[in-house]
Amino acid sequence: MADVKINVFTPAGKHVGYFLNPAIKSFPEGDYEVQGAFYDVDGDKVVKLEFNPQVLPYSCDISSLSAAHKQLTSCYVQRGRQPVMMTGRGA
Question: Which of 35, 44, 47, 63 has the most CB atoms lying inside 10 A of its own CB?
Fold first, then answer.
């Protein structure tokens, strides 16, 4: 089975990093929870993803999944330490 990679971006489109093989929960209202190992753009495992209100919310590309949505918007960090957890809304 191929690795699932969920890329995360700032509102300006800057690549922040990615989840590798995360656990993903979807809810009937179109909300998602993504949790797992998070890596920066250089491929290094992040110790703590900073909470920075000036760059929030993030967006996540979930097109590698066979989900109803291909993009998550309004993604907020719920847990900054590994395993990192974000919540977002399907778009």
Answer: 35
